[in-house]
């Protein structure tokens, strides 16, 4: 166990907050919670990659950061126009 | 324990603390426009602290460069996503994002 894995475990309650918001609030708030959860998951993957000393796993966090952005925009576009 | 490990640990805990505080802020705020302010620190300061921790720990190795890349992507995309979310919320609540004639801009 090292500080990186401690940080990764300590970050997990943040997902609970996003889950509560997803459950309780309006649909646009839910998209906001989804985006925040995407950022948290990106940080989680980066902490785990460093904690296990696996540099190639940083690519997962990098791809997730880009896809969180793209996915969020698609949701917002649909919510703006058609849903 | 070296000073790098101490500094990297402090940066990691700072990054995780900022992210958790942002989640708490998003949870307790009243409406979407207030909540949007709390996504900023999580998407900018937390990745910056964690990327700095990785660079302190591993210098500019593969991991260090990729951690900085992750910060750069998040720093570049989060403001755009925040603006798009605010715009969507505005359109869904009032039908258009531009201010209506009877809506003085000072009150926005």
If you had to describe this structure to a student in words, what would you say it looks like?
The complex is a heterodimer of chains A (83) and B (108). By secondary structure, chain A is mainly alpha-helical. Chain A has one domain. Chain A is built from four helices and no strands. Chain A starts with a helix and ends with a helix. Chain B has one domain. The relative contact order of chain B is 0.12. The interface between A and B is large, with 44 and 48 residues.
Layout: helices, strands, pairs:
The complex is a heterodimer of chains A (83) and B (108).
Chain A: H1 3-10, H2 13-24, H3 27-51, H4 58-81
Chain B: H1 3-28, H2 32-37, H3 39-58, H4 62-94
Write a short abstract of this structure.
The complex is a heterodimer of chains A (83) and B (108). Chain A is mainly α and 83 residues long.
Count of the separate structural domains of chain A: 1
What oligomeric arrangement do these chains adopt?
Answer: heterodimer
Give the SSE string of chain B.
HHHH
Largest sheet of chain B: none
Q: Report low-confidence residues of chain B grouped into runs of 5 or more.
A: none
* Arithmetic mean of pLDDT of chain A: 93
First CA to last CA of chain A: what distance?
46 Å
**Cα distance, first to last residue of chain B?**
53 Å
> DSSP strand (E) fraction of chain B?
under 5%
Number of strands of chain A: 0
Per DSSP, the total helix count of chain A is 4
- Rg of chain A: 15 Å
The description of the largest β-sheet of chain A is: none
| Structural class category of chain A | mainly alpha
């Amino acid at each position: 166990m090292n500080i990186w894995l401690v940080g990764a475990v300590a970050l997990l309650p943040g997902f609970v907050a996003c889950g509560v918001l997803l459950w309780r609030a309006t649909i646009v708030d839910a998209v906001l919670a989804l985006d925040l959860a995407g950022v948290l998951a990106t940080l989680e993957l980066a902490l785990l990659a460093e904690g296990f000393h696996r540099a190639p796993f940083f690519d997962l966090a990098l791809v997730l950061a880009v896809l969180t952005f793209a996915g969020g925009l698609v949701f917002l576009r649909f919510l703006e126009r058609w849903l | 324990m070296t000073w790098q490990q101490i500094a990297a640990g402090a940066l990691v805990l700072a990054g995780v603390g900022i992210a958790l505080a942002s989640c708490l802020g998003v949870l307790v705020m009243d409406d979407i426009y207030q909540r949007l302010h709390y996504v900023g620190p999580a998407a900018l300061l937390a990745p910056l602290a964690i990327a700095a921790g990785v660079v302190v720990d591993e210098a500019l190795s593969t991991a260090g460069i990729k951690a900085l890349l992750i910060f750069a992507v998040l720093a570049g995309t989060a403001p755009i996503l925040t603006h798009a979310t605010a715009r969507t919320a505005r359109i869904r609540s009032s039908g258009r994002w531009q201010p209506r004639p009877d809506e003085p801009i000072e009150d926005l």
